[in-house]
Amino acid sequence: MRARPVILHLDLDAFFTAVEQLHKPSLRGKPVVVGGVRGRGVVSTASYEARVFGLRSAMPTAEARRRCPNAAFLSPRFEAYRDASHAVMDLVRELTPLVEQVSIDEAYLDLTPEHPQADVALVGELVEGLRARIHARTGLTASVGAGTSKLVAKIHSDLAKPDGQIVVPPGEEAERLAPMAVRAIPGVGPATAARLTAHGIATVGRLAALELDEVVALLGKAHGTQLHAFARGEDDREVVTERAAKSVSAESTFETDVTDRVRLAEHVRRLTDRVGERLRADGLSGRTVVLKARRHDFSTLTRSTTLDQPTDADSVVARQALRLLDGLDVADGLRLLGVGVSGLSLYTQPDLLDGLLDDRPTPVRTSTVEDDDEFVRPDAGGGALPVDEPPVARGEVDTEGPAVRSPWRPGQDVEHAEHGRGWVQGSGVGRVTVRFEGPNTEVGRIRTFAEDDRALTPADPPVWQPAEPADDAADTTGP
DNA sequence: TCTGGGGTCCTAGGACCC
DNA sequence: TCTGGGGTCCTAGGACCC
Fold it and tell me: What's the CA–C1' distance between A368 and B16, in Å?
């Protein structure tokens, strides 16, 4: 928590429908719904005119049509929403560089870099200005909450809707939260709310009055600890500008339940292609393939399998996903299938960039993971290796020793691709040498062995050791 | 009117290793 | 021969968010 109300949460009002109404004047002032328009679709966004009829996000479209037959029902046009979102976020970043975009229509801001001493009045003025610029430039309205933490900012952007703003003075957090329903706290969904209500806890104030032990006993360690703090208005989470993706997935729901294994397999292949395309577009590979299935009764199954090395290849992902599908009982029919890849690393398959590589210089690099004879740990020597530039290098892997494990197999082509990071994992006894070949320049080596003969521990990070400026490019096999 | 699609995080049990 | 405690990885499921 900060001493000053410098954390902001900005949320665009009824974003999807607002963009549609901007693009199509005939929709303005009318109930508009964006979402799945077909049989099993649900509402993504209902315009404020539609909310009068009780329409809400996540409501089945069929019910929305019944409640408000005259609304315009539109399929989402994500390109248009992305464009509008970019325009807004550009304006937001003019106010502060510390912006955490949490979704297409939402962001946290930290004003500290530009206005470390901001008080309630100044923050109010800055937010007024930002909202005015957003409206002038894009036609969209945004609501903003501001306070000493993400929690307070988020809760109050919601209360400010639509087209409003609230700046919470430091020190008033707990008293403002106390009368609210527990559902107001982010992270309290239907299940948690029901559990709390069953114990007579309906308001944030009641929750705040409990001992930590009691909340943990009720909700588990992680969730309980966090909610106990939140209920008291305590929240130390930072605004982080970038976060690495943890998984990539694609799923879809059938118009009617499917039992035919041939159709299901075809669908798995289509989903796999979408996932693979996105992995390669982002330069990612993953080790764990997940198949998701939803049954006729809406219960959800997941089956997963973990590969020895990461992949971004459709064929590899598809083979695993199909194998997982084989193990599923589909006799009662499936309503949804999904394919996902997790355990991601910034690692690009050799074949992807082959065409692009031909004209580039390919410097020599050597990466070595070593260990002494006694110490065996699967994670010794693992981790991200800092590889600065040039952006792409490729070469061949040698492994020695009985217990070496590496995502790179002997003889395999490997590359450090555009992201400036690569990785090597050794299992202790033996060693992995990644030897990059090209013009006679070695730019450096990665060393993970201990200098003084003690056992290697996971705390020993891989070290990037630049090559001597001189000419010894011949020795590229290790220390 | 049955309930989308993209994610994140947590829990819990079992395997395996030291 | 029996016993234990810690740590990591993997798998499955569930809550939650937009």
Answer: 26
Beta bridge partners of A399: A432
- Within 7 Å of a protein beta carbon, the nucleotides of strand C are 8-18
- Marked catalytic residue, from A63, A106, A214, A396: A106
State what percent of residues in chain A have pLDDT above 70: 72
| Pairwise pLDDT comparison (A340 vs A400), residue with the higher score | A340
User: For residue A312, what pLDDT is reported?
Assistant: 94
Centre a 10 Å sphere on the Cβ of residue A54 and count the other Cβ atoms it contains.
12
A234-248 mean pLDDT: 94
Mean pLDDT of chain A: 79
A304: the nucleotide nearest its CA (via C1') is: C11
* Mean pLDDT, residues A127-152 taken together: 98
The burial class, CB within 10 Å (0-12 / 13-18 / 19+), for A25 is: exposed
- Whether nucleic acid strand B comes within 7 Å of the CB of A186, the answer is no
Residue A404 has what pLDDT?
A: 31
pLDDT digits over A217-230, tens only? Answer: 999 999 999 999 99
Q: What integer pLDDT is reported at residue A346 of this predicted model?
A: 84
pLDDT, residue A223, reads 95
Contact A380, A461 (CB under 8 A): no
Assigned token pair, A398: 């040698």
The question of whether A128 is a catalytic residue gets the answer no
Kindly report the bases of strand B lying within 7 A of a protein C-beta atom.
Answer: 1-12, 17-18
Q: Alpha-carbon distance A410 to A397, whole Å?
A: 5
